[in-house]
Amino acid sequence: MEFRNTGSRFEAVDDGQVVGWLEYEPEGDSIAMTHTIVPEQYAGRGIGKRLTEYAISYASEHGWTVLPYCTFVQSYLTSHPEYLRLVPAERRAGFSL
Known about the structure:
Blueprint: E1 2-5, E2 9-14, E3 17-27, E4 30-37, H1 47-61, E5 65-68, H2 71-79
Parallel strand pairs: 4-5
Antiparallel strand pairs: 1-2, 2-3, 3-4
């Protein structure tokens, strides 16, 4: 599986097929992660998790802070507190983090 950034979403691609995506919007020096979608036929394969890992790592590598409006991304961050540093401290409570 490979991952790519299209400029408005991160995509998971398997054998040439887009099998999931995470939509985002730039917001200053932040990236607002708004929605994660894995079509039902690809569900249960861990695609959403790996896609979120890629998106979070990409944001970190580019020096962006993360605004996790997507509840899937919020859940991922709760399970991986090492990435909470990417969410501005003053905004964490608003995302239940």
